[in-house]
Each structure stands twice: as C-alpha cells, then as structure tokens.
Amino acid sequence: MNRVAVVILVLSISTQLFVVSPQNDGRLRFSKQNVVYKSNKTGKVDSIPAGELNLAQWRRVCLGHGIKLGTSTGHIYKYDGFRDTDFEKISEFFKVNYKVELSEKDMSVKGWNWGTAKFSGPLLSFDVNDNTAFEIPLSNVSQCATGKNEVTLEFHQNDDTEVSLMEVRFYVPPSQTDERQDPVEAFAQNVLSKADVIQATGDAVCIFKELQCLTPRG
Would you say the pTM of this structure is higher than 0.90? Predict the structure, then answer.
C-alpha cells in the first residue's frame, strides 16, 4: 500500500531534496513549500503542503527504510526504499524547513498473528507488544463483512501493481469487559466509518423471503 520504492540522493541543495526510484516508479521532492511525489507510470501526483505536515516517522521496512508522513487534515503518506545513511540528511532538512522532527519508529518483525488492532483516523494498525506489525489505510477497503468472532476486509484492486492484496480476516475474541457492546460490530463500525465501500445500485432481479440456508453445508 506504500506508494513508491525510493533511493536517495540525486540532488541536494539548501532548499530541496530530490529522490528517484531505482525501479523508475516515480520522483519524490522535498522543498520548503511542499512535498511532491509524481509516479512515472501513472502520472499521479501527491502534493503535501509543508504547513500541513505534523508527523514524520523513519521506519525499517522490507525495502530498506521508509518515511511515513501525516498531515493536520488526517491524510497519511508512505514512501519506501531509503538507505540507512539517508536519515541524518533528511532529518536535518525536515527540522530546518518543516519544523517537524523525523522520529525513529520500531516495527514488529516477530511474525506473530496475535496482537491489538488500533484505529487512528484513516488507519488501522495491528500492533504486537506496542510495535506496529502492519497498517491498513481504511480508504482502500471496499467491503467489510462480519461473522461469529470474525471481521473480513476486502480491498479495492490496485491496477498499478501485478499483485494486489484482496482480503484480510481478523479474529475478534469475545469481550469480557463490556457485555453491552458487541466487539465484532464495534470493529466493523470503526472500519466502515473511514472505508470507501462499494455501493450496489439498481433493482433486484429477484428477492427470496424466509429462505432457510445452512452455512457451511452439512
């Protein structure tokens, strides 16, 4: 779900940093006025005004290191592929030009599938021992279905990639503290409040009423 794999540094001057992807995916530029990323493949442009930046995290990811940027409007942007030696240069640029500290954030690499789901604005993060294992931008969710102690998230297909994540399922244990609220329904409502759900429109071909159905079969 990250936008680009990047490697720094093509050009560095007092007011700008330019970044180019080794796979030629795009170009990322830090300037005093904004942060701009343009995809070479699709031409799509991300433009983040410098005055809206309020979060900058440096994180170890699968493609080296990555930067997570957050804005006062609630938007999250992530760019991957930086080298370890780039941290000081980018950190100093952010401190001088954006007045934002580029903090280091540890990620969970234990591979555990049992943790805590946390909702923060447009993001769902899955944390293991207070370290984030992965994050899901809720705007990428196309459907959210519930079952017994389970929530299934389906995602919009990404036409820019050859392989896309289509579905994730979360097991939600029964609540032992608040019997008045169904934890599965609460989880689903948190997802749906920020999800970009596909709505079906039009007239039904047929409607079955009071139909008995057994799932799974047998």
Answer: no
